[in-house]
Design a protein that fits this description.
The chain is mainly alpha-helical. The protein has one domain. It is built from 4 helices and no strands. The protein is elongated.
Length: 139
Amino acid sequence: MFAALCYGVGMILTGILMFVSVYHVIAFDDLKCNYKNPIEQCRHLNALILPEYLAHALFTILFLFAGEFLTVLINIPVDIYHFMKYKNRPVMSGPGIYDPTTILNASILNEAVKEGWFKMAFYLLCFFYYLYGLVTSLM
């Protein structure tokens, strides 16, 4: 029953993380087209980084406690990626990974857009996997 609860929490959090990924992609597209101020956009994006990383780590730990080791193995690489990305972030005064002075660099902006699309695809696949896990753990 705890596994079903974990899959339910994972599904809800993954749904929220999908919307965060969509927001990231839209925000970076706005930056590409010069519709938004990079300082304001980075401030909004940086406010979402730690909650995203912590939410993903939370349901990875929940799956670990539930004994769902395949699900943990699926999520561990993303948690490691998040940890390394945050560890190697630019020097800034606040939390976050996006620096307004360098975000308009074409290579950094393209990398951020690709990361947003990959995360969105990963979270979408995980959402349906968690839905399947929820149904099978309830049966």
